[in-house]
Amino acid sequence: MIQHSEKTNITFRKADFETDAVMLHKWHHEPHVIPYWKQNFPFSLYAKHLKSLLADEHQTLWIGAVNGNEMSYFETYWAMEDPIGRYYEAAPFDQGVHLLFGDPSYLGKGLAAPMLMTIMQEIFSDSRTARLVAEPDIRNEKMIHIFEKCGFAAESKLDLPDKQALFMVCTREEFERRMNGDL
User: Fold this and answer.
1) Domain containing 100 — which CATH number?
2) Once rounded to an integer, what is the mean pLDDT over residues 160-178?
3) Contact, 90 vs 80, CB < 8 A?
4) Are 112 and 4 in contact (CB under 8 A)?
5) Looking at the domain assignment, is residue 3 inside a domain?
6) CA-CA distance, 18 to 108, in Å (whole number)?
7) What is the structure's pLDDT at 8?
8) Considering the domain boundaries, does residue 5 fall inside one?
9) Is position 4 within any domain?
10) Mind listing the pLDDT tens digit for each residue in 148-160?
11) Is residue 83 a part of any domain in this protein?
C-alpha cells in the first residue's frame, strides 16, 4: 500500500502522442474507466481522438505519476471554450478538470485527493483563474467525494449530451483555505 508522506512524490507532465497513446488507450479500456469516459474505441479511432485532443488549444492533457510511476490522466481546460461553458455563466478564465486513474493497482490508495490538489495548484498558478469547475458523472460517488474533499461544492445537476453530471465549483479562496489547512 502506498503511504502518504514526504516519500510520496506526485508529478505531472504534458501528454505526448508518441509516448502515451498506447498507454492511454489501454487505460480507457479498464473496467473502472469505461462507464464514465466511454472512450474504449479501437486503437485507430482512439489515436484520431487523442490527436484531436492534443491539438485543441483550449485544453492541456497531463500524465500523473506517483514516485515516478505513471498511473493517471488529467485534462485541464478553459471552461468558456469548452462545451461546459454553455451550461453555466462561465467567466473568461474559469478552468475545468477531468481525471482518471488508469492503472487499477493505484485505486483505493488514497491518492486521488492529493493528486487533484496538486493539479489544482498548477491550475490556480494562473492568477487570472478565480474558479475551477468539474462535472463528474452523477453515478461516480467516489469522484464526487474526492472533489468535495478538495474544496468543490455541488452547484447543480446537468443533463449533458454524454452523461448526467453534477456541476461542481471550487473558488480560489476555498482552494487557498484548504492549502493553508484552514478547514
Assistant:
1) 3.40.630.30
2) 95
3) yes
4) no
5) no
6) 30
7) 85
8) no
9) no
10) 999 999 999 999 9
11) yes
